[in-house]
Automatic annotation (TrEMBL):
This is Copper acquisition factor BIM1-like domain-containing protein. CDD domains: LPMO_auxiliary-like. The keyword Lipoprotein applies. It is a lipid-anchor. InterPro entries: BIM1-like (IPR046936), BIM1-like_dom (IPR046530). It comes from Rhizopus microsporus. Residues 22-152 form the Copper acquisition factor BIM1-like domain.
């Protein structure tokens, strides 16, 4: 009987780990709103009304910071104005947690351009959406450029959507998360085999 309780607890812990890892959050600038249950609803994760308060972003070296629950994912950033949608960023990452996603603007974006930035995130279990309402400006003194952080230790390149090679400490972080998942899975497989014997 005691073994069955351990098995149930183990399965519950794995299920909770997967639930936590199933989403991302837009951490800088903050999203319009966040509801984990609505994050899969396009276009803005259930928060489809533009905010009256817009964040001022610089025309050069702008970025969005996210926190990912997945160890591998792809993303796309769209600028939405009325019925026009322009892709301003895309890429993929192979590490969880903090990630700085660069925004690449074309010449149509000018000082004072209002737009909604939509982040479309794909961690392998369906598309997720979050939005932030912004105004692009030549000068954005309140923009926190130090918020551009990558968990793997790499630097974000603003000339394109790639990042430099990760540092060795960043690789340890990603591999540590993978090793933990493999370890939990192995433990559960051994436990399950033991209980069936």
């Amino acid at each position: 009987m005691y073994h069955r309780y351990i098995l149930i607890i183990g399965i519950a812990l794995i299920a909770m780990q997967n639930m936590v890892l199933a989403h991302f959050t837009l951490t800088y600038p903050s999203s319009r709103g966040f509801n984990e249950d609505q994050e899969s609803v396009a276009p803005c994760g259930g928060f489809n009304t533009a905010s009256a308060q817009r964040v001022i972003l610089p025309l050069q070296n702008a970025f969005i910071e996210i926190n990912s629950g997945h160890t591998s994912y792809s993303y796309q950033i769209n600028a939405i104005s009325g019925n026009d949608t322009v892709q301003v960023g895309q890429g993929s990452r192979n590490y969880p947690q903090a990630s700085c996603l660069p925004i690449q603007l074309n010449s149509a974006f000018k000082d004072g351009t209002n737009t909604t930035l939509q982040v479309v995130y794909n961690g392998g279990d369906g598309l997720l959406y979050q939005c932030v309402d912004v105004t692009f400006a030549n000068s954005a003194p309140s923009f926190n450029s130090s918020a551009c952080v990558n968990q793997d230790g790499s630097k974000t390149s603003f000339g394109n959507s790639s990042t430099s090679s990760p540092s060795s400490s960043g690789n340890q972080s990603s591999n540590g998360t993978s090793s933990l998942s493999v370890g939990v899975f192995t433990f559960m497989a051994v436990l399950f085999t033991f209980l069936l014997a």
